[in-house]
Design brief:
Structural class: alpha/beta
Keywords: ATP-binding, Ligase, Nucleotide-binding, Protein biosynthesis, Transferase
CATH superfamily of one domain: Amidase signature (AS) domain
Subunit structure: Heterotrimer of A, B and C subunits.
Order of helices and strands: HHHEHEHEHEHEEHHEHEHHHHEHHEEHH
Shape: globular
Low-confidence stretches: none
Strand order of the largest sheet: 1-3-2-4-6-5-10-11-9-7-8
Number of helices: 18
Radius of gyration: 22 Å
Helix content: 40-55%
Protein name: Glutamyl-tRNA(Gln) amidotransferase subunit A
Enzyme class: ligase
Mean pLDDT: 94
Largest sheet: 11 strands, mixed
Catalytic activity: L-glutamyl-tRNA(Gln) + L-glutamine + ATP + H2O = L-glutaminyl-tRNA(Gln) + L-glutamate + ADP + phosphate + H(+)
Strand content: 5-15%
Length: 506
């Protein structure tokens, strides 16, 4: 079997081959490390690669399997991890100079669960600085490029994870979603990206950015792969005070069901229309028609306060950022600048934050600090929290009528690198459809639904009630099966190959 074949197979098929002894984890890991070496200089998807550690883990998994040990369903499969998850053996930078070179003394809960399940961690992926951005262009270590078109963005803030999976550098990845940072990159790279119910996956050891919004989740090339990874990641964690102590639904079973008959599907009236690409709306409406033909009941629902979600988010989010990033004061940890004996503590803090944080982080810190300041707290932050409640009530009312809601994931396809860097509002609008679910805390996901006339991927967003994450996978598994018949295989096979890897995409 060629390395190219190993790279393009979905994770669940690779896992089956590993169990059957057709391949070894070392062989599989080495193939992905070679792909990273070939393509990462172009894509900049990885900030750190642990080749020696990954191969050592792979050999250990192979030895355990050879000894007859019962292993997890994804044991031996390589995985990439977004660089805001603490890893005791790899740097965790959050894409910022402020944490450059920092190696945490402990693992995030998610990392521990990946290790316990036998997944092989390849390295840490690029991201917008402290997860603030929608394009992975605010990273202090350079932008990530979209494998579909290297002149375009891979989404953000988790563009490194999505590009790694879309570019066949890793079969699976872990991301975090605060306002769409898994789903929006999923849509523009043709990958599956899932934001679990808030509290469904532990945040312990994920560098805090906006604590009431952050939620880790899976990135994959197929719906079943995402479900299997989600099951590894999910579950109660007493070290996370927001973790939900409830059983994890049968997500992989839901992905395999591939039947939507009798499901009630709500089309959100407010998430469409002016400002949405023609191709995005066309692919969305085609998917809605497929749902009807498959026996789902489709109705239009109104969520009137979704219109205000973006504005509320960009007050709540910066306010929490202002609080969480106050710890980077040059005194406790992080980089320190200006400490030459001539500056006092306040000056050292000011110099360090000035040099350590990038422009977008500074912008949000200023907004958040102002929103929380005396005399403005109720006017800005307090009012935004009231809107958040109204958004959640819109979801509650809609879910009384429907099992799931659907919308485009993003208003547009991937835009050109640099195109929106000087227009923050245009950049923020990339998360227009995804933000409501973060405010309300319900489950949501993006699934590939087709391509534009330019050949760029488009995503369908599915939203489910809290703790009903299995409904996402039921819709996604069905959609994937139907569209693969039309496409003649996975959407990623339509990708225009990079010159270095035409054999991989042949």
């Amino acid at each position: 079997m060629t390395d190219a074949t190993l790279l393009t197979k979905p994770a669940h098929e690779l896992a089956a081959m590993l169990r059957a002894g057709e391949i070894t984890s070392e062989e599989l890991t080495r193939a992905h490390l070679e792909q990273i070496e070939a393509l990462n200089p172009t894509l900049n998807a990885f900030l750190a690669v642990d080749a020696d550690g990954a191969l050592a883990t792979a050999r250990a998994i192979d030895a355990r399997r050879a000894a007859g040990e019962e292993l997890g369903p994804l044991a031996g499969v390589p995985i990439a991890v977004k660089d805001n998850f603490c890893t005791r053996d790899l740097p965790t930078t959050c894409g910022s100079r402020m944490l450059e070179g920092w190696v945490p003394p402990y693992d995030a809960t998610i990392i521990t669960r990946l290790r316990d399940a036998g997944l092989v961690i390849l390295g840490k992926t690029n991201m917008d600085e402290f997860a603030m951005g929608s394009s992975t262009e605010t990273s202090a270590f350079g932008p990530t490029r979209n494998p579909w078109d290297i002149d375009r963005i891979p989404g953000g803030s988790g563009g490194g994870s999505s590009a790694a999976v879309a570019g066949f550098l890793a079969p699976l990845a872990v991301g975090s979603d605060t306002g769409g940072s898994i789903r929006q990159p999923g849509a523009v790279t043709g990958t599956v990206g899932v934001k679990p119910t808030y509290g469904g996956v532990s945040r312990f050891g994920v560098v805090a950015m906006a604590s009431s919004l952050d939620q880790p989740g899976p990135v994959a090339r197929t719906v079943l792969d995402a479900a299997l990874l989600h099951e590894v990641m999910a579950g109660h964690d007493p070290r996370d005070s927001t973790s939900i102590d409830r059983p994890v639904p049968a997500l992989a079973d839901a992905a395999r069901l591939r039947d939507v008959r009798g499901m009630r599907v709500g089309v959100v009236k407010e998430l469409g229309g002016e400002g949405y690409d023609v191709a995005v709306e066309a692919r969305f409406l085609e998917a809605v028609e497929l749902l009807k033909e498959a026996g789902a009941e489709v109705i239009e629902v109104s969520c009137p306060h979704f219109t205000y979600a973006l504005s509320a988010y960009y007050l709540i989010h910066p306010a929490e950022v202002s609080s969480n990033l106050a710890r980077f004061d040059a005194m406790r940890y992080g980089m320190r600048c200006g400490d030459d004996g001539t500056n006092g503590a306040e000056a050292v803090t000011s110099i360090t934050r000035g040099e350590g944080f990038g422009r977008e982080v500074k912008r949000r810190l200023i907004i958040g600090t102002h929103a929380l300041s005396s005399g403005y707290h109720d006017q800005y932050y307090g009012s935004a929290q009231k809107v958040r409640t109204l958004v959640a009530r819109d979801f509650d009312a809609a879910f009384e009528l429907c099992d799931v809601l659907v919308s485009p994931t993003t208003p547009t396809v991937a835009f050109k690198l640099g195109e929106r860097m000087n227009d923050p509002l245009a950049m923020y609008k990339a998360d227009l459809c995804t933000i409501p679910s973060n405010l309300a805390g319900n489950a949501s996901a993006s699934f590939p639904v087709g391509v534009s006339d330019e050949g760029l991927p488009i995503g369908l967003q599915v939203m489910a009630p809290p703790l009903a994450d299995d409904r996402l996978y039921r819709i996604g598994g069905w959609l994937e099966a139907v569209l693969e018949e039309t496409w003649g295989g996975p959407l990623l096979q339509q990708m225009k190959p990079l010159p270095e890897t035409k054999a991989v995409f042949a």
